[in-house]
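Supplementary Methods, section 5.1.

A reviewer requested that the exact input to the structure prediction be made available. We therefore reproduce it here, unchanged from the version used in the analyses.
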Amino acid sequence: MGGCFSKPKPVELKIEVVLPEKERGKEELSASGKGSPRAYQGNGTARHFHTEERLPAPHPYPGAQDCVEAAICHVKDLENGQMREVELGWGKVLLVKDNGEFHALGHKCPHYGAPLVKGELSQYTQEVGWDLPEGWLATAPSQAGLALPWTSRVSSISGGLLSCGEGRAAAGTQGRGAVACGPSPALLPLGVLSRGRVRCPWHGACFNIGTGDLEDFPGLDSLHKFQVKIEKEKVYVRASKQALQLQRRTKVMAKCISPSAGHSSSTNVLIVGAGAAGLVCAETLRQEGFSDRIVLCTLDRHLPYDRPKLSKSLDAQPEQLALRPKEFFRAYGIEVLTEAQVVTVDVRNKKVVFKDGFKLEYSKLLLAPGNSPKMLSCKGKEVENVFTIRTPEDANRVVRLARGRNAVVVGAGFLGMEVAAYLTEKAHSVSVVELEETPFRRFLGERVGRALMKMFENNRVKFYMQTEVSELRAQEGKLKEVVLKSSKVVRADVCVVGIGAVPATGFLRQSSINLDSRGFIPVNKMMQTNVPGVFAAGDAVTFPLAWRNNRKVNIPHWQMAHAQGRVAAQNMLAQEAEISTVPYLWTAMFGRSLRYAGYGEGFDDVIIQGDLEELKFVAFYTKGDEVIAVASMNYDPIVSKVAEVLASGRAIRKREVETGDMSWLTGKGS
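The structure derived from this sequence is encoded token-by-token as follows.
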């Protein structure tokens, strides 16, 4: 068993605690007025750290020379609910006005760098006539036949037409149908501001506007929060130059440098699986002040990395995919055992056994093993150059073998279609084999699937639908042809298999941890299994989905794994947290992004607004009278807006999306 951190040698225990931001500057006083110790619970025993033992918290503004301050607008320039991106010389900040208060934050989502302000606002507006001065922002009831409100800068008005900065126009009669948001030198938000937080328009991450803290996923880091003051009706922002340039903030965490002597074969928290769920669990524990030993083990040879990027960017190297650098794990005492396979879990004695015989005792256990890809079972399945995409090495080899040659992808789900899209510029030919009639049919429906299929065909991808692979033929042991059950023979030098996955839970079958008939680990809202002290999260679990009446579901999304990892960590610390996030996923193909929120399994109708042929659309997935999911392409931020509505607990009715009246998106509906 290899690892970033080998099995630790007995050393003296050293623990260093950095208090969370909310505790900075607080004087913890006893009745006598002297500093009293702060206790952190670890493995059932309170450990005490006196005030004088703590590291001094760094001041957010170390010196005037390291900061920049400027008046950026008048207090009346923004209405409640509006956001603006402003320049401070060393970088931009996001200025938000909510409930009469101004907040200044980092302006880009730390996940993939999405601008939180980009150009659309559909709330806090008032109806006026068409007679608007140039430079004002106007909202009209429809855009290019799409019955959705939009907002844009007015550049000219003539003959009942509003001409806008983006080249869009809306027709109407004098005094009817237009809405003005007031003059603004900057575009208003494409991100969604609601309930004291801003939601990223790309992937749905949410940040508290009062603290900048990450409240919903994906991503690991928070936004910087900058000082705001009001003087003589002007809004001033003061910010650290360094923070302006970094545009991300890692929360303050406790540190545990090394295990105590004689305890190298035991740990307080063991995390099996180093994907999003496992990493977020470990980080959350440290953020909450947990300072005991944490061991994270993985089958991979690498530290935790961004697995969804594997199929979208097959050339990416491991260091480009890493979620955290090696120094991060060392700094916060999160031990990572790589190439470490757990073969047995003994819950009675709280012990796991690894493939190489190494045994490790634990106090709390998180199971986040993820899933294993399904393999082809046809004749010739053992030939060379047939891959599943599980590691950076897999992805890199596929690109290398496909360059200038013939590639076949089996499976037209997200992974298969992403791989096919990426290979079109590398391979001589790309073919996709799929059992269904159209790609994504079960997930996105027939009409959306067909529109996406056409996009692929326009990019030289050949489809073989409603058939399967019957044989893989080799020449000198290497793949040469893929034979289909339809009798077609497809030339192939490399084949990628993306036909689904099964939970990687075989090592639990002899334990007393419950598995369902498909091998998934059932958990409750607190991510607890049937065994006390054992939690589970990520792709291998089924859990109750709160806004779908607690229906037990499996949602193998990157974002959902993040959220489950945090909830598991919180409940290891007895915080009684419950999973409540709205599922959110995305894909990117040929430079176009598709976003999806909700849980659409079992949908019985799809209501489409927009133009499928132009790939500018919104699709609402309904079951009975209720909207249960939404997908869009080239129409941000509607998916993030719908996710925020669902997160608020409000049901969206089918009739609301059928009529094209989207007032419910702005909080004006029923």
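The chain is about 15% helix and 35% strand. These observations are discussed further in the main text.
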